[in-house]
Amino acid sequence: MTTTPSNNPDDPNNPPEDPNNLDDEEKGRAKRDSYNLVRKRIQEHKDRRWEAFRKIEEPHESIYSKAYRSWVKQEKAVTLVLYDETTKAHGLELWHTLKQDELLIRLPSEVLPPLESVQTRLGEKVRPTYDGAVEDVLEFTIDGDLQGIPLFSLEGTEFTRIMNERQAIITGSTPTTLQANLSETITQGLQNGESIRAVRARISAVFDGQISAAKTLQIARTETAGLMNTIRDEVFKQQGFTKEAWSTAGDEIVRDDHVTFGAAGPQERGFNYMSLVSGVGTLRYPHDPAAPVGQVVNCRCLKLPLE
Description:
This protein is mainly α. The chain has helices at 24-90, 92-96, 100-111, 115-126, 130-144, 156-191, 196-210, 213-239, 256-263, 293-296, and strands at residues 243-247, 267-268, 302-305. It has 2 domains: 55-240, no CATH class; 242-307, no CATH class. It is built from 10 helices and 3 strands. Strands 2-1-3 form a 3-stranded antiparallel β-sheet. Helix 3 runs antiparallel to helix 6 (156-191). It is elongated.
């Protein structure tokens, strides 16, 4: 009697197909199917993690935005008081009797507060926003990427160092740029022979532009995501990951370089993504402090540990 093989893989009359008996075409198809399945799963995981990251990061953007706006409004008030006191003390004599070259030298320095005091006030405004962001990104990373209890001991000193470095970046750049813009607009007003009131309006306009919706979002996103991504990189370092992947937002506004980084797939930890594009510098993960400014401003990318 002829036995008809069943669909039961445990049926002795229906032994599993020996992979060695597959022809080359079938082997190639099986390999491609397996690769595509793995790639799909990785992509789905990346998409879910990016979306989850944005959900915890965006609220902190809002918190940072409020702190930053508060600082700009404070600096505007301080600067305009100095301007009013200076112009009142000199009166119209400042405008009509001093030579223009002397006026150009004296006025900007007299109406702008000391840079160090501006930097200190900015640090006092933004530092309180860091603690909540660090707490949330640690929970997100440990629960999501490490799947629970980390293998390392969390050292608060390392995260304090990162917060200090992030604060130094914003306080070292933004106040300096702001005062340079103020000095430039004051000089332009004086060179044009504008009135005391007109130059005052110029000063106000610089501060108002500093807290436009686009400018505020750019700074808040860059600083918040920068802190969170750097904290994550420290966690991956302590955990001992050796391979990581770059994940982008996957939409049409992702910059071309970052599309290239995301398409590069798994890379050894510490890999310099700038080597993939026509640029110089170092970029090991999104918002790397060592990276060129154009690669980190407004970046929404995320680094994912693989093994």
